[in-house]
Backbone:
């Protein structure tokens, strides 16, 4: 049995009462840390790795078919998000993968496509982040923003609008508030997990 299959089996046993929608793609299973929380109404496919204490909420789709998706630790992906990647082409043979660092908060109904978000980033509700965008540490994209392909958002900047532009730097208080939200989601995930575990 491959490492990926083993993780899948262990994960299925942990969630005996709540079957989790985790599927292989071309023989590759998602690799999910046993301490991550995946709500049973989320769908995770293929070349996806999720680190410890991260959480994936109802209605999320993470489809790692034509490229890799890597999600770090203590990162929350809230309800209804869609995460996908871009396949290789003659122009760009390796395509574009999707990477989320540690302590990242992704608000409800966000679409992330083949982009890279570093640690401590926050993406507001309903935002869309397109291919090859890089969002550096501690930066934020506000609710409803559209970040167009290839944009590089420097550390700690706040970007809003469609197309998104820098509006200002984030304050220390705002960075701390984002960290509080991230920690809250880590705790909340544990409560949801316990609520689903048979007594
Ligand atoms: C951007 C945000 C952080 C507020 O920043 P702020 O600087 O405190 O903004 P303010 O509320 O003082 O508003 C300043 C201006 O920006 C506008 N604004 C606020 N949020 C905006 C957004 N997401 N997109 C566009 N404009 C926005 C306000 O309307 C206001 O405009 P005005 O000066 O013409 O009246 C907040 O609106 C946001 O997007 N939060 C995301 C929350 C979220 O999605 N959380 C995830 C779930 S936990």
Residues:
């Amino acid at each position: 049995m491959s490492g990926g299959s083993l993780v899948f089996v262990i994960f299925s046993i942990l969630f005996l009462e709540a079957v989790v929608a985790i599927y292989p793609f071309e023989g590759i299973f998602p690799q999910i840390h046993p301490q991550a929380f995946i709500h049973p109404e989320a769908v995770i496919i293929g070349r996806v790795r999720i680190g410890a204490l991260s959480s994936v909420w109802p209605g999320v789709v993470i489809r790692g078919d034509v490229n890799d998706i890597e999600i770090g630790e203590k990162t929350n992906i809230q309800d209804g998000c869609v995460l996908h990647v871009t396949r290789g082409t003659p122009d760009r043979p390796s395509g574009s993968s999707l990477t989320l660092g540690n302590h990242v908060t992704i608000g409800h109904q966000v679409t992330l496509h083949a982009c890279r978000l570093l640690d401590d980033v926050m993406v507001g509700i309903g935002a869309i982040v397109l291919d090859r965008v890089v969002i550096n540490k501690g930066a934020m994209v506000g609710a409803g923003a559209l970040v167009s392909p290839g944009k590089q958002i420097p550390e700690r900047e706040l970007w809003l609008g469609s197309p998104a532009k820098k509006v200002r730097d984030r304050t220390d208080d705002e960075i701390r508030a984002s960290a509080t939200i991230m920690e809250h989601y880590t705790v909340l995930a544990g409560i949801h997990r316990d609520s689903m575990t048979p007594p």
Remarks:
- The helical segments are 3-14, 172-196.
- The first strand starts at residue 21 and ends at 23.
- The radius of gyration is 16 Å.
- The chain has one domain: 3-195.
